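ENTRY TYPE: paired fold submission
RECORD: A
CONTENT: sequence, then structure tokens
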Amino acid sequence: MNQDQWTAIDSYTNGLLISHDPALEKASRMSGEAGLPDVEVAPNQGMLLHLLARLGEARSILEIGTFGGYSTIWLARALPEGGKLITIESGILFARAARENIERAGLGDVVDQRVGRALDILPEIEAEGAGPFDLFFIDADKAGIPEYFAWALKLSRPGSVIVVDNVVLGGALVDPASTDPAVAGARGFHELLAGEPRVTATTVQTVGSKGYDGFTLAVVNG
């Protein structure tokens, strides 16, 4: 198997299982036209997030790392009436593109967008009493994953679901000699997870149009 085959399979299955969606397609296209890097989740990964939110009957979602708002739209659409999603993004260009994409998708009243460093904003969210959240999606800088995960736990409840994206880093996760802060963050996160009795978790490797990587799925124990 190679990248061409992974991409072809994604194209085939997405074409069959994911309906044509002008808002999502435009969000992806507009992010590219705005000069943003192609770091959003793939359509099938977006659908997975949507399904996880529905399976957990999530009414409140916290996303760390908005990027262009593509994953935000997938998640927000899974919420029932009265549900709320808070999303945090530190990049001004990302946040601006995301706001346009979210508004265009008709989700401006559902999504509460916060712009700034997550580690500055998360204490504010706690102070507001906005939690606990039913679902967390962490897809920000990888060096900060351990701290973001710790905050997710703080803002969770028994049964909350925490999804952390891009934790395999093309296989670099298993390189203890790496000096890359992203690798250090992903390894530190897994070591933290291994000793954390409050959650049950697994990491799944993935291949597809976005290449080789993986995600961690954790559930907060009752």
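RECORD: B
CONTENT: sequence, then structure tokens
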Amino acid sequence: MTASRPDGDPQEPYFFLSYAHVPPYDVTDGSDSNRWVEKLFRELCQHIMHLTEVPSGAAGYMDRELRTGDNWKEKISERLSTCRVFVPLYSPRYFESDQCGREWAAFLERGRGRSDLGLPIPDAIVPAIWTPIRPTRMPAAAQTIQFNHADLGARYVEEGFYGIMKLNRYRTHYQAATMELAKRIVEVARNSPMPRGHIRDYTTVPSAFEDNTAERPITVTVLAPDEDHLPPGRRAYHYGRKPQEWDPFRTSNGARPLADHAMELARARGYLPEVGALDQHAEALSADEPRSPAVMLVDPWATTMDDCRASLRGIDRPGRRWITVMVPWNREDAQTMANEARLKVCLREALGNKLTEPDAVPDVPTLDSFRNTLPEVLNRASQHYLKRAPAYPPAGPSTDRPRLIGPEE
């Protein structure tokens, strides 16, 4: 799994910046909510270029470098396999992100060989504060990290990088904090880097934040076949080993499953998503009383299959608005568009009631449309759930209601 690392390959990144993606507040203005993280990343890289002899482009890595068509799982796994230092950017959203938790856990996996030999795992995690978060809100993995943030400045500790980089009066504080963080990254990279290791697919590693629970559960059900159980004639291009790997917009997003986008967006809004296939969730979705709000991501091709339609009978009943249906229609998928009329007939036969509900989204044309629409879908499903969810009184004996009494009573 791991190998010694006496000098390090100069082409390997000094650090991997792990951060939680922030969705745009207004999807119509075209602004980029994560440009401030990229600004911090570039300034850290510039400092490291001056402090070391690292070649151009090898100072650090963040996933903004991914381009359309890249295999994002392979690229991130490769960088997690070779980076010397892991820099998590702490924020409330960070510890709700399943992807960030997997990046953290995959990086630590590289030290498992040393642990098996009774050797200590290097302290190669250098955290940074993006926005302040109470230590009690952090998962155990973060609470065990020994790092004195005060070395980067008192104002940085109070405001985080986002706070001090946005206001001109804190410019000197920001400059000092970025320089100190860059020096710390270089020091750890030279003195105690993580040993080399091969991470085949970081998405298969359990998140390091599994003990960090959000307050609002939500069910995300992927209604799609896997590549071994496709409808007759359907190409396997958009499918994977399990339904959750279905990627209807593969031509435009670098082969990232739609369920991963849904999980990321749900966690960023404080939900605890449970993602699974229809056969895993059918019983709960068919129950008369809701167990959680739910969103179903429906591949039209799945509704052409008899076993799928049979599973949907208990779900497609009126008055169950805590379950919301979203149907992607990729206009660039020639096979789907050629069969559009037939697929829509199958959809209506299988989910006629759900598709006519006001909250249903029966036509999601692009990945951007999905990412922009899903947050509101999650909110509406949660509102309907709260209207129907059973309320339980607290344990213990009941008490009479208090009442006001007059002065003469």
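NOTES ON RECORD B: The chain has a mean pLDDT of 85. Residues 329 and 365 are 5 Å apart (CA to CA).
STATUS: closed
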